[in-house]
Amino acid sequence: MQENHIERPLQPGDRAPNVVLDAITRQGKIAIDDFRGQRPVLVGLFRGLHCPFCRRQIAAMSELTGALQEKGIDSLTVVNTPIERARLYFRYHPLPNLLAASDPERVSHRAFGLPNVQFTEDETDWPRKVGISAVRSMRIEMPSELPQPMDPMSAMEFLDKADGYEITEDDKHMVATGEGQLVGEFLLDRDGVVRWCFTEAEEAGRHMFGIPAPREVMSAASNMAV
C-alpha cells in the first residue's frame, strides 16, 4: 500500500485515505475501506498503550460505542503498539465492543496528517517542533486522578504508577520513535469523508492530552446523515 503524507490533519470535507492494519481484538486485517460504502465510522488514532493519557482516551471512546452503534456508526481504535503487546493488554483490560488495530509504524497517523512533534532545546514551531521548556511549563489538570496540576512528564509517571502499568521493551521502542506523535479522532461518513474531528494539533496544542466531550461527539454523530 502506498502511504499518503499530508501537511496538516484531515479536516471536515477531506476524504480519508485507506489504511490496512493488523486487528488486535480479532484475527486478520482491518481497513478503512471496510467501512466505506457500508457504515460511518469514528476512527481514533492514538499513541501506544504506554501513554496513560491515550489509555484514558481509548476508554472514553469505548464508552460511546453503544450510543454510536444505535445511530448506525461503527468505531475503530488504532494504537501505536505492536500486535502481541496490544493483545496482551486488552486481554487483561477488556473494553466492551472494542474494535482495535495495531499500527506501530504510525502509518495511519501520517496518512491522516497527524504530526510526530520533534522535541528541541528551546525552539517551538507548532506542530512540528516544541521546546522542552514549553512542555515542562504545561500543566495537566485531572482533579479526579491527579493530586494537583502537573507537567506532562510528572503526570505520566504518576498515572502509570496509579495504573500499575509496567513499561516493556516494546513500549520503550515506541517511546523512542514516536514520543511526540499527536493523536486525534475522525468521524467519517459512509463515503469515507471526514465530517468532524478532534486533534491535538489544533489551536497550538490546546487539546493536548485531552478528551473530546461526549456531547460534542454525539452531536456530530447526530448531525451526520446515516
TrEMBL record:
Residues 10-223 form the Thioredoxin domain. It comes from Rhizobium freirei PRF 81. Pfam families: AhpC-TSA. One of its GO terms (molecular function) is oxidoreductase activity. InterPro entries: AhpC/TSA (IPR000866), Thioredoxin-like_sf (IPR036249), Thioredoxin_domain (IPR013766). Transmembrane segments: none annotated. CDD domains: PRX_like2. This is Thioredoxin domain-containing protein. It comes from the Bacteria.
